Amino acid sequence: MHANSTPPKIIPMSKHFLENNTVPLEQYTDLLVFDIDNTLYQSNINLIGRVISQTFDKLGINDENARARILEECKAEYGFSIKGMYAYNILDYKTYYDVITNIDYKAVVSPDPDLRHMLENVHINKICFTNAESIHCMRILSELELHGVFDYVLCVDHSEPNFICKPMNESFDFLEQLFGVRNKITFFDDDPRNIAMAEQRGWIAHHITSMQTIKMLLLEIRQAEDRK
Known about the structure:
globular; Rossmann fold; 46% helix; 2 domains; single chain; alpha/beta
């Protein structure tokens, strides 16, 4: 058990939340922003692939070509396949919720003590910024033993019609308004479209392709802190 295992505060991205929180929750000067899936654990685990496969199983869509076509079209149109599946009425929230609550996370992901140590050694506020549901986020962070590392998790409420998610401009607006910071954000994500959107806004954006990549970047940030 780590000394600080306090779960982060969960905030679903929504226009309603911003309307009721007009003053930034925090006034960060610098901020490290992390995606979760395929960024804080090895992408070859393919957890999201398992979630999507089980979702199609529940929907009774068994043809592999049909699955591939749906994912491609939804991602091309909406930037996030699951959002497109909701928009086209292919997927309903109950089906998706049933899938993510029955995934055996412990069998798929495991802690990386080196990653936690490196995250804790960087003395800059850290949050997660993800398209995942809150229950998925918390279970992943728990299995990775990363509770206590992040202040907040900005996630998606899939039960809300027309939810906000990456790479939509509104999701990046949400983060900037919530924390009162824009041009001193360092962002880590595995999706090139999210990276491109962040770069357009002046964020320092790093495309994460492996755990080695993220660890190398964290080491560089820590070394830069030491030189100050």
